[in-house]
Amino acid sequence: MEHPSTARWTAWLAAGLIVVFLSITFAESRLKSPTSDEPPHLAAGLSYFVTHEIFRANPQHPPLLKELSALSLMTAGIRWPHNEKADYLVHGDDPSRVFGSDWPIGKAIIQENGPDKVMFWARLPFILIAVSLAALLYVWGRQMLGPLAAVGAVFIYVLDPTILAHSYLVTTDVGLAAFTVLLMFALWNYVSDPSWKRLAYCGLALGAALTAKFSAVFLLPVLGLLLVAALRWRPKPDSGRGPAILWPHTITERFPDREFNPIAAPSDKPGTASAEIRRKDVCPCGSGKKYKNCHAGREIKPRSRWGRGFLLVCGVFTVICLVAFLVIEATYFFPADPLMYVKCARMVNADHDPNMLMFLAGQFSSHFVSYFGIAYLLKEPIASIVLAGIGLVALMKSKSIPVIGKLFILVPPAALFLAVSLLADNLGIRYIMPVLPFVYLLAGLGLATLIHAARRLRWAPYAAAVLCGWIVLAAVGVYPDHLSYFNEAACLLDQPGQIGLDGGTRCGPAWLDESNVEWGQGLKQLKVWLNRHAAGRTAKLAIFTSFPPEAYGIQCQRIDQSELAKEPAPGLYVVSASLVADMPAFPGASDWLRRVQPIAIVGHSLYVYDIPQTP
Asked: Is residue 49 assigned to a domain?
């Protein structure tokens, strides 16, 4: 049992950490240029309020987060453009011309209205969602694990490089993570103390998750499994006053001395379970009849609880899905076709090259099952991983946390991680973003365990302090380039001399590519570097972005991968860290990107090479 003063100071500490997180996220978002995937999302969102037809632009992603971005943009006076390409997306009838046109339209919207202005307003809702997730972690973590573990989880969340890197981006990953935790929070409170309002909240949260990203469909079996598990293992209710029709356990609370809940005739003898039920009271079985006309003088058979329980689970699950369906229909502007969501879901990855190979540790393959496990072990701070391991052991050994509480913390991330590992493209740690908040809860529990162990183990508080300092260093050492962060293990085997304050970020391209290392976010920083060190020179650019560098005044010559595959001609090259990772691994390609020492690494993501004239 936590002391009341602990709850107070942890609440204030959590609030302070959230303010720090808001400040860092806002500052970093202002320093970063649009990533590769942001222009089509913001363009699609604006188009929805013109066409009211979700399927026209970017249908392979649900609309909710894009609509929030669009509403923010419209608040700032940014509107859908009127030109040939934009008008055709709205009114055209050739799907081949409409599909994919949101990319150039998005880039044009950003350029014409000013990149800084557009990206500030487009990203603002995502920053607020990320901040809300931090607050939700504390509130739910306090319910599940106690205030000390909850504030520990917030501490790890707000300083995690992966979260800081993606918190402000106009993409779907952090939004899905937030709504996943919201769904589990709502469901936990429902099974703790059922009510119609809490049941509706579950449906709203599920609808928000499903309209954030299509991979949220994997939450449906998780939802059903946890509801069934709650029949066997139930948390202590908040009040026990929930209607019996919503959950069979509301009967058992009134008859705690009877296994399987038999209801006998009422008795006036004080202290008996049946004394709580009078003959004219509503029967607690949920039938709606008076007790005297229902179960008075009879008993519920042992197996009836489970039979009725499964029927109630099916009913509860159905109600949640119906509310979620209404949310889906609302975000799709109530289309004529009620199966529009399903049709759009079938278009996931429709713009991906089926022959594209994935990169992992110098190797190419169509898919690596171990990809996301390795990405987690390399992209998350080692201190956080250690704390999560301690927390997992503490959770499994805990006698104060109910079994159903353990399932709520472990089942959702396990199911989502398995689904992503088996089915998702290997394009970045961002795909397991919904898993990470649950890991932070475990890490928070691990930190609390070390603090509580101070009386028995003298080294425990010192270990906690070192791990916390390590987490702070990971966030500060790579600022503001958190997207490119790798921990020290990335360099430990082959290049330990490259380990620095930024961890093993310098060795990241030897392991992973794509959005793990560079996503087009460094153009503003590149402009500053070129002005200082290469003014007047035209750089040869090979970077991982669809946004034009010219929007920031960068003089450049775009080159493709075929030119990087051969020995370079003299000149100034700026190469994406993703290509530094990929190109030397292609059969027959030159390894000069690894062999030649770059003169600078801008933003931890853009490698600059100055190839001199040969004598």
From this structure: no
Distance from C-alpha of 503 to C-alpha of 498, rounded to nearest angstrom? 9
Nearest Cα to 333, choosing from 52, 62, 65? 52
Residue 300 domain flag = no
Domain-embedded: residue 606: yes
Residues 111, 157: contact at Cβ < 8 Å? Answer: no
Q: What is the total residue count of the chain?
A: 615
SS (H, E, C) 290-345: EHHHCCCCCCCCHHHHHHHHHHHHHHHHHHHHHHHHHHHHHHCCCCCCCCHHHHHH
- Hunting for tokens 């090479």 — which residue is that? 609
Question: Is 423 inside a domain boundary?
Answer: no
User: Cα–Cα distance between 6 and 148 in angstroms, integer?
Assistant: 7
Tell me the average confidence (pLDDT) per consecutive run of 10 residues in the chain, 615 residues long. Answer: 72 97 97 94 93 83 96 96 88 77 92 96 98 98 96 98 98 97 97 92 98 97 95 67 59 40 38 50 65 58 60 92 97 92 85 80 92 98 98 96 96 97 94 98 97 90 96 97 97 93 95 94 95 92 86 90 89 94 85 92 96 80
- Could you tell me the strand order of the sheet in which 606-611 lies? 556-558, 539-542, 571-576, 606-611, 600-602
Q: How far apart are CA 405 and CA 145, in angstroms?
A: 9
Residues 6+ apart with CB under 8 A from 194: 242, 243, 246, 247, 250
* Number of domains the chain contains: 1
Structural domain boundaries, residue 562: 519-611
Q: How many separate helices (H) and strands (E) can be counted in the chain? A: 25, 7
The reported pTM is: 0.89
